[in-house]
Amino acid sequence: xxxxxxxxxxxxxxxxxxxxxxxxxxxxxxxxxxxxxxxxxxxxxxxxxxxxxxxxxxxxxxxxxxxxxxxxxxxxxxxxxxxxxxxxxxxxxxxxxxxxxxxxxxxxxxxxxxxxxxxxxxxxxxxxxxxxxxxxxxxxxxxxxxxxxxxxxxxxxxx
Length: 159
What we know:
Helix content: 25-40%
CATH topology: Fructose Permease
Order of helices and strands: EHEHHEHEHEEEHEE
Number of domains: 1
Number of strands: 9
Number of helices: 6
């Protein structure tokens, strides 16, 4: 079962590796990223950062979508992580059964237009993608940690 689709530009770190996985009883993390899927050193580093007993699979976005589909109704509790909103939007629109997107840590960069709660910054393209997801009926929520207050992208009314 897909428990969470999350965007976090740090990928696996304390909040992801321990808070989210513990709260959601995650057995597998699917990291969907084209560059990391080809980078053995980065995959090894991320594997070290994950909690013991949790399987980590790093795949290109396309291969990750195929893997995600196999876990929609499985007994394995899966968290899918991307490091950017375009990849997450691609996954969500390709696999609408997931239903929602969690925006986690997204640091400011040269393209940042708006800084949302805490460490969540978005570009104009990100805003357009999130607005499209919301208009298509998907939930887009902002929350850094599972115990944090759940806020919704639609409430920011960004254009």
